[in-house]
Structures are given as C-alpha cells and as structure tokens.
C-alpha cells in the first residue's frame, strides 16, 4: 500500500487541487484508483466539493451536467487504464455537445510512460492515444513544476470556442511527490480563453443580405446558448422581424413566449420547408448536422449565412456566407452593422420591416398550426398528454436531463424549457446520460448555494447503464428526481428493427423492479400509471432529496415526414 510520504507536506495531488481552485473550480467529480491515490488523498485538505461516482463513464456525464450549470470547466478525476478508458463515451458526448470538461487521469510512474515494459497494473503503451480522437488536447505531466501550467492550458483550451473536453495525465509518483521547495501554494491563475472573431467584411456582407431580405429566418443552435448570446439573438430577430427556429440543443436560445419564436419542431417536414423557403436563412451556432438538418433532407433555396465557432463546421454541409466566429461577438457586430444601415436607409427600410413583420408572424402561426394538425391526425393522444402534463408538473426554471429514450425524442421538439436548462445525449447519442448528468447539475446548484430540484428522464434500457449511481444518489442526497419509462427493452431499436426488418432481435430486456431497487438504496420510489405520473413527478420535485418514479408504458413517436420525402433516422417511424 502506497502511503503519503509525509502528512505534513504538500504533495503533487495538493498542487492539482490548488490549481483547480485557483482556476475557479468549486466542485469535482470522479472516483479513485491505485495510481490516483495521491490526488484523492489531497481531497481531504481541499476546499473543493467532491461527488464520487461508481462508474467512470457516469462520472463523465456528471461532469457534463456540472459544467452546464456552473458555466465553466468541470474537472473529472480518473485513475489509469480501465478507469480512464471507461470515461471515453461520456467525453465523446462532451465533445459533440461542446461541453468544457477537464479530465485529469493518473498514470503509471514516469519510468513506465510509453513503454509497456514494466508490467504496472493498468499500464498502456500510450494511454493518451486513446483520447486524442475525442478530446481537444492531451498533455502528459512529467514533473511537479508542470502541473499548474498544464492544467491552466487545458482549462483555457476547454473553454475556448468551440468548447470541449481536454485531458491531462499525471503519473503516480508525481502525484505523491513532496511539493516543498518546488511548487509554492497555487493562489490565483487568470485564464483568458480565445474566441474566434468575425472579420468585418463578413459582417458587412451578412448585414447587407439581411437588410434586403423579405422573408428572413433564423435557425439558432446550441452555440447561441453556450456563448450566452440570447440577448443579441433576440435583438437581431426583433430588428429583422425574423422568425426564430431553434435546434434541439438551442431550445434555450429564445423564449417560446416571444412572438417570433417558431420553436423547435425541426423533425417535422413543415419546419424543414419553412427553413428552406427563407430568402435569407441565418444559421447561428449550429453545424447543420444530422438532427438539425432533418437527417440531411434540408435543401435551402435562398441564401445561407452561417455563424459557427467550429471552423471545421463552417459551410461543411451547405454552401453560403460562412462566418467563423463566436455567436455572441458576431451577433453583436451584426446588430451594430444593421443599426448603421437602418440609419442610412430611411423610409424604405421601415416599409420593408413592416412587410416582414406581418409576413413573419403570420407564417409562424401557420407553421405551428400545421404541426399541431399533423399531430392531431395521428393516434398520439397518450404521448401528447403525457409530455404536456409533465411540462406543467415541472417548475419553471427547473433543469431537465434526458437519456436517449422515446420520451426524450418528444421533448426535443415539444418541451418548452421555460428558463430551465434542457440537455440530452443528442450529440454522440450514447445511452446512460440522463441520471448522472442530472446529478452533476444538482451538485452544481448545491455548490452555488441554490439546491433546486433537477429532473432526469430515462428509458429502462438507459436506466440499466446508470443504476449503480443510485448508491451515489443516496450517499450524497442529491436533489434529483429520476423518471424511468419502462417499456420492457430498447424501445427505439425495437421500432427501428420492426420497421426495417419486420421483427426485432435482441431488444427485449430482463430488468429489475426499479422502485424496489431504489428503495433498497434508501431512495424514495414509487411505481405509477400514466394518469398518476405527472402528479408523482411534481410531488417528488417538491420534496428535498432523491427520488425515483417508475412509469410502465410503451410510447409512440410522431411521424414527422410526408410520404414523398424519405428520412432515415430517429424520426422516420414510431419508436419508444
């Protein structure tokens, strides 16, 4: 058993946690391992709040939820080899959704790095290589003096738009080494993340196109939310009188109560056509990927302007005026340029704006009415009632975290966030996201002194991925309500296979009595009917501490497309 060489002396683990505190972290998540003992021993001397997971992948999802709530980088503490590698699926979700997570992995002693010769437990010839295709940067520390700067650079990189996960590896012997005379106590580190700034000529060109547009439409993605650009987006929409459609990740970009909000039914063909028919379509903070483009069926007829912080996504899927920039900076510059054009344009601009006002708001009403009529034409009363009644049961401002389950597919389109964070595993699409991400969010709220309730929603298949975290939920008494929709298997995959092959294979699951299992951990739980579920969720959210609601139900998905437009993907047929 390796012991702290001197309990009275700071060691490498202390330097790590001091640095995180100096960078602004107040909470960390993770779980210990043999090579990380020096890091975890330092926790008892640290002011950082710790959430200990049971599985590293779940810890990664917890870090995702914590980062979303805290608005900054979330540290994820891992061990070596199997422990580190188990986090990769969660880090892929953070990468896909641009969530700043700093993974800090232990490593074998310095002498064993890169060799695979010493036979250390958990040793890999090149552990970092497994992460390079997922995270934004990797750095392997080799001595104590490198720790503060390595973590500061990883923190900066993680926050720099587009945000995302980073990895710093620190060998076991460095974490255990005395810091005396090598690294003085770390007190303050100022990190300024770099954000891409739009070139003036691109803003001028975009403003000119938008000023002349008769039917402008804005598609707002998650980049608007991550950049905190909601006010700039609202100002632009009101200046142009332009309808705003949001992607699933951008649901918080504009309040659904705003008269220019065209909401987020982007899997419905009516919304696809609405976007296609814009004479100028401004896409902000979205790469127009698979979900945002209705599974790549979207084909714009007018001019496209795309503001995107990820250079690799600029004009990657659709040609147009590409602006590589942070959404907040670019929208601010665009508003200023449009103000200048408006001042110089006179009465003609006012008349043009009035035409857009009448057209835009009328077209929004027609669009949303079309979507509602299409829903009413399908046998979906159960699903529509459930999502609406759950929405009324959840307090305004409450955060919700959704796994890859059929109810989440409804929520992507139908859930009004009402000032609460809305997040799902739509970036990478892995199972098991809902509960641990909600736990990370609850930790963030508690650390900020506002332990508000958080809702997690999973199917029974996804619940099996996170069921070990019932122990964490009980131990830390987090203010999380977990709603499990139990349909007896991998419901979405079941429907895909039935639609494609006529029958499903390997989709049916033997699973526990989730309510009894939760109670065995000391977590309040109940099994409810469809009629009872909303009230049960409301009661649970109003009661401090963790709770589990189990709803046995087989749900259907709305059919989002006309028969003459074939779509492959989650919205192409019924799923659950």
List the helices and strands and how they pair.
Layout: H1 12-23, E1 27-30, H2 37-41, E2 49-52, H3 56-70, E3 74-78, H4 82-86, H5 88-96, E4 101-107, E5 138-140, H6 147-159, E6 166-171, H7 172-176, H8 200-212, E7 216-220, H9 222-226, H10 230-240, E8 244-246, E9 261-263, H11 269-276, E10 280-284, E11 303-308, E12 321-324, H12 327-345, H13 347-376, H14 381-393, E13 399-402, H15 406-414, E14 422-424, H16 434-447, E15 454-459, H17 460-466, H18 469-476, E16 480-486, H19 491-501, H20 514-520, E17 524-527, H21 533-542, E18 547-552
Parallel strand pairs: 1-2, 1-3, 3-4, 4-6, 5-6, 7-8, 7-10, 8-9, 10-11, 11-12, 13-14, 13-15, 15-16, 16-18, 17-18
Helix pairs in contact: 1-6, 3-5, 3-16, 8-12, 10-12, 14-15, 14-21
**Average predicted local confidence, pLDDT:** 91
Number of domains: 3
DSSP, total strands: 18
**Amino-to-carboxy terminus distance:** 49 Å
CATH superfamily of the largest domain: Thiamin diphosphate (ThDP)-binding fold, Pyr/PP domains
> What is the beta-strand fraction?
5-15%
In terms of quaternary structure, the protein is: single chain
Instruction: Provide the CATH architecture of the largest domain.
Output: 3-Layer(aba) Sandwich
Question: What is the general shape?
Answer: globular
What is the gyration radius calculated from CA atoms?
A: 25 Å
Q: What is the CATH class designation of the largest domain? A: Alpha Beta
Structural class: alpha/beta
The helix fraction, in percent, is 25-40%
Major sheet: order of its strands? 2-1-3-4-6-5
The CATH topology annotation of the largest domain reads as Rossmann fold
Q: Major sheet: size, sense and barrel closure?
A: 6 strands, parallel
Helical segment count: 21
Q: Outline the low-pLDDT stretches.
A: 1-6, 562-576
């Amino acid at each position: 058993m390796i012991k702290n060489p001197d309990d009275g002396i700071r060691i490498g683990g202390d330097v790590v946690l001091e640095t995180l505190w100096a960078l602004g972290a107040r909470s960390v998540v993770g779980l210990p391992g043999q090579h990380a003992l020096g890091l975890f021993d330092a926790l008892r001397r640290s002011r950082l709040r710790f959430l200990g997971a049971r599985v590293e992948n779940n810890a990664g999802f917890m870090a995702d939820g914590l980062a979303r709530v805290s608005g900054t980088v979330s540290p994820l503490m891992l061990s070596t080899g199997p422990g580190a590698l188990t986090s990769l699926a969660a880090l892929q979700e953070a990468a896909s959704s641009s969530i700043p997570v700093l993974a800090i992995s232990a490593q074998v002693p310095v002498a064993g790095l890169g060799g695979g010769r010493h036979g250390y437990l958990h040793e890999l010839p090149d552990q970092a290589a497994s992460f390079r295709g997922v995270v934004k940067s990797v750095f392997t520390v080799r001595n104590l003096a490198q720790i503060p700067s390595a973590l500061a650079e990883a923190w900066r990189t993680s926050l720099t738009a587009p945000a995302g996960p980073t990895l710093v590896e620190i060998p076991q012997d460095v974490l255990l080494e005395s810091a005396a005379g090598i690294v003085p106590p770390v007190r303050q580190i100022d990190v300024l993340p770099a954000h891409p700034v739009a070139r003036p000529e691109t803003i001028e060109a975009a403003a000119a196109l938008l000023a002349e547009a008769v039917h402008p439409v804005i598609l707002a993605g998650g980049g608007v939310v991550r950049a905190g650009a909601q006010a700039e987006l609202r100002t632009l929409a009101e200046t142009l009188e332009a309808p705003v459609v949001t992607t699933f990740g951008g649901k918080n970009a504009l309040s659904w109560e705003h008269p220019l909000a065209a909401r987020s039914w982007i899997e419905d063909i009516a919304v696809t056509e609405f976007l296609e028919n814009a004479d100028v379509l401004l896409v902000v903070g979205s790469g127009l990927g698979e979900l945002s483009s209705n599974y790549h069926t979207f084909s714009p007829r007018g001019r496209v302007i795309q503001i995107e912080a990820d250079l690799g996504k600029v004009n990657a899927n659709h040609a147009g005026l590409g602006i590589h920039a942070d959404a907040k900076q670019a929208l601010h510059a665009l508003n200023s340029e449009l103000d200048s054009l408006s001042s110089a344009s006179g009465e003609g601009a006012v008349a043009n704006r009035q035409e857009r006002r009448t057209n835009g708001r009328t077209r929004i009403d027609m669009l949303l009415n079309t979507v509602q009529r299409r829903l009413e034409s399908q046998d979906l009363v159960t699903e529509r009632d459930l999502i609406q009644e759950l929405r009324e049961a959840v307090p305004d401002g409450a955060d919700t975290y959704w796994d890859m389950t059929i109810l989440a597919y409804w929520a992507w389109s139908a859930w009004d966030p009402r000032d609460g964070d809305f997040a799902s595993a739509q970036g990478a699409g892995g199972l098991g996201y809902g509960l641990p991400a909600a736990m990370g969010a609850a930790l963030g709220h508690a650390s900020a002194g506002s332990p508000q309730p958080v809702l997690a929603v999973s199917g029974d298949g996804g619940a099996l991925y996170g069921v070990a975290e019932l122990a964490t939920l009980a131990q830390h008494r987090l203010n999380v309500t977990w709603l499990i929709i139990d349909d007896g298997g991998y419901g979405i995959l079941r429907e895909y296979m039935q639609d494609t092959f006529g029958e499903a294979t390997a989709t049916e699951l033997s699973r526990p009595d989730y309510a009894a299992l939760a109670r065995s951990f000391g977590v309040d739980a109940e099994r409810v009917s469809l009629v009872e579920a909303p009230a049960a969720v409301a009661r649970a959210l109003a009661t401090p501490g963790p709770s589990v609601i189990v709803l046995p139900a087989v749900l259907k998905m709305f059919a989002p497309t006309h028969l003459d437009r074939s779509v492959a993907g989650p919205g192409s047929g019924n799923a659950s």
